[in-house]
């Protein structure tokens, strides 16, 4: 024997354990209790003859596909052994051509070959009993200590038997909840919601693990466990500081947003043009700002009621706002052109309202209120507040938001005498102002998408 032959022999024995359709388990026993009706064309025998031909073909196909993986025995229905088997399996006297798999699964009438193959595969791969965890999602990616968060565990019965089993949820290997899944049918999924109370937890990132089963006689345990992205727990103070900073920033940029400073300067130039006294000018500016903030609060409470009554609306609306903010930001940067016909139609309306309402204090208040809803640049800034509109911090968040929104009005009121100069300067640098506004909108939309929206997708 030369070197080449020795190498071939070595390769054969080395690869032999991996060559198959062979299976490491015992062959699946299939018993075909056949009976060929005496007449294929006789009306009384037509259906029985068709069943005989169909089931015979299924038996032949299964044998051809799985070879040594199965042990197929054809047993004449009226033989002594056939009668013994019919009695053992409870098969009726006219249930000819039945298929029995592993002495426990009886198929009568027309046999579904695809389903039979699934059963055979399950026996060959030891997955007759097999439950798995296919998905774990949490309602929040970040929670405060003491809050509760819902964690949804989706399980699946990948076997061929109805299964009942326990679903366990762990946080850093500590059991935090158990639910029972009853009579889950083969190839069906079930979602179970467990609540995690974070009252006794410390700040940090926690790994969430869900485990389904195992069930009796289950051998494939690799798919029983599923790990989801960690949930971050923060202290009340850290969340409060972040909320204050964000709410204050949103309020400030809503009032003094570069995209509407030109229109705001135009209106304020009317409100201070009739007097040169500081107190009077300041009062007029503050009245306009008060009307503006009143509209803000009205919209905030309306949105808050919507979000509290329909929790999913917050997530959906935030997606919409992010998309619109990016589109508007690209438009302000000059990278995407959006028809501005509506904005040009609003300018004469705002000018006309300013001329008519500037003469009275009530008119100034109403002008500020109406102006809030007329300018399309405001919506993307305010709606960015939606992630902060939680029921327990709603009033505080709005208070901080209004404080940030009031500061630009106070500043403009103090320097009201220079308002015309501010308007001219804003007009001269309008391209830079538009670009700055676009960058602000796009940056925050991307921030919301990356850190708030995408982490909720599993």
Structure class: alpha+beta
Largest sheet: 5 strands, mixed
Shape: elongated
Cα end-to-end separation = 60 Å
How helix-rich are the residues, as a percent range? 40-55%
What value does the Rg take, in angstroms?
Answer: 37 Å
Q: What is the number of strand segments?
A: 12
Q: What average pLDDT do the residues reach?
A: 75
Strand and helix map with partners:
Elements: H1 3-15, E1 28-34, H2 46-66, E2 70-76, H3 80-89, E3 98-101, E4 105-107, H4 113-124, E5 131-138, E6 142-144, E7 148-157, E8 163-171, E9 174-184, E10 189-197, E11 204-212, E12 225-234, H5 236-255, H6 261-271, H7 278-309, H8 311-333, H9 341-357, H10 361-374, H11 378-383, H12 394-414, H13 419-428, H14 430-453
Parallel strand pairs: 1-2, 6-12
Antiparallel strand pairs: 1-3, 3-4, 5-7, 7-10, 8-9, 8-11, 11-12
Helix pairs in contact: 5-12, 6-9, 6-13, 7-8, 7-10, 7-12, 8-14, 9-10
Report on the structure:
The chain is α+β, with helices and mostly antiparallel strands and 458 residues long. It has 3 domains: 22-124, Glutaredoxin, CATH 3.40.30; 131-233, Immunoglobulin-like, CATH 2.60.40.10; 236-456, no CATH class. The chain contains 14 helices and 12 strands. The longest helix has 32 residues, at 278-309. The radius of gyration is 37 Å and the shape is elongated. The relative contact order is 0.09. Residues 12-24 have low confidence and may be disordered.
């Amino acid at each position: 024997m030369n070197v080449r032959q020795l190498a071939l022999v070595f390769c054969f024995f080395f690869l032999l354990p991996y060559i198959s359709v062979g299976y490491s388990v015992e062959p699946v026993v299939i018993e075909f209790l056949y009976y060929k009706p005496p007449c294929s064309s006789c009306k009384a025998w037509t259906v029985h003859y068709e069943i005989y031909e169909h089931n015979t073909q299924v038996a032949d196909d299964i044998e051809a596909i799985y070879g040594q993986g199965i042990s197929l025995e054809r047993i004449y229905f009226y033989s002594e052994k056939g009668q013994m088997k019919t009695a053992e399996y409870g098969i009726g006297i006219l249930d000819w051509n039945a298929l029995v798999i592993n002495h426990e699964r009886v198929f009568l009438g027309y046999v579904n070959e695809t389903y039979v193959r699934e059963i055979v595969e399950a026996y060959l791969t030891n997955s007759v009993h097999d439950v798995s965890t296919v998905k774990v999602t949490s309602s929040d990616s970040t929670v405060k200590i003491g809050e509760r968060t819902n964690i949804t565990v989706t399980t699946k019965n990948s076997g061929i038997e109805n299964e009942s089993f326990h679903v366990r949820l762990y946080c850093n290997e500590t059991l935090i909840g158990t639910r029972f899944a009853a009579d889950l049918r083969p190839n069906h999924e079930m979602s179970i919601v467990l609540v995690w109370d974070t009252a006794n937890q410390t700040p940090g990132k926690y790994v969430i693990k869900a485990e389904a089963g195992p069930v009796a006689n289950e051998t494939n345990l690799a798919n029983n466990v599923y790990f989801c992205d960690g949930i971050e727990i923060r202290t009340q103070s850290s969340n409060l500081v972040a909320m204050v900073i964000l709410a204050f920033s949103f309020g400030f940029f809503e009032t003094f947003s570069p995209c509407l400073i030109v229109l705001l300067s135009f209106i304020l130039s009317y409100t201070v043009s009739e007097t040169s006294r500081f107190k009077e000018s300041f009062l007029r500016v503050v009245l306009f700002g008060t009307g503006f903030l009143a509209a803000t609060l009205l919209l905030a409470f309306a949105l808050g009621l919507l979000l509290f009554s329909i929790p999913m609306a917050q997530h959906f609306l935030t997606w919409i706002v992010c998309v619109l903010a990016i589109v508007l930001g690209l438009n302000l940067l000059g990278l995407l052109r959006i028809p501005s016909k509506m904005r040009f139609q609003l300018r004469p309306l705002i000018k006309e309202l300013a001329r008519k309402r500037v003469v009275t204090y009530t008119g100034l208040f109403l002008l500020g209120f109406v102006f809030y809803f007329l300018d399309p640049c405001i919506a993307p800034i305010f709606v960015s507040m939606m992630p902060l509109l939680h029921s327990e911090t709603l009033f505080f968040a709005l208070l901080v938001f209004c404080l940030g929104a009031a500061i630009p009005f106070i500043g403009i009121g103090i320097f009201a005498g220079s308002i015309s100069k501010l308007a001219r300067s804003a007009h001269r640098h309008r391209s830079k102002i538009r670009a700055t506004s676009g960058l602000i909108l796009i940056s925050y939309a991307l921030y919301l998408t990356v850190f708030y929206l995408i982490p909720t997708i599993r």
